[in-house]
Amino acid sequence: MKLIRNIALSVMLTIGAFSAVTYMACNKDACKNVVCNNGGTCVNGTCSCPTGFYGATCDSLVRNKFLGSWSGADVCGSGTYNIALTIGSSSGAINALVNNPGGFGGTVQITGTVTSSNALSFTNASVGGGRTLTGTMTFNGNNMTFAYTVTPAVGVVDNCNGTYTKQ
User: Fold this and answer.
1) How many separate domains does the chain show?
2) Same domain (yes/no): 101, 134
């Protein structure tokens, strides 16, 4: 009787060990052959990209979706202004250069930072004459909204909302 019990225990342990090995062999590392670039990390076989990058392997720059010429109108407390601006590349991967923001002139250029898959943000960017601009451009395909505040060195703060179309 004791012999049968020992044999049964041995069989059960063997089956358990075989099952454990088989189970472990079936659960392969989903990230084993996945390469995520630009600081991306693999989660369950898919790249999770850092701010400023997107794509299957985090190879694409978000800011490239925003580049180009844009035209529209800004409605501010001080009036309504028709504006043409351009957004270009910057040396920093998550930055973009905006020429003529708020219609302050073609020589005025500010740097925006990609903060999500569809936004550029600006904080205290100099637009000349002692004025600074703080705000966010939000992109949706060929359309963009620009909500910002212009703070002068002296005087009244001007709140503006613009709507633009990519040219």
Assistant:
1) 2
2) yes
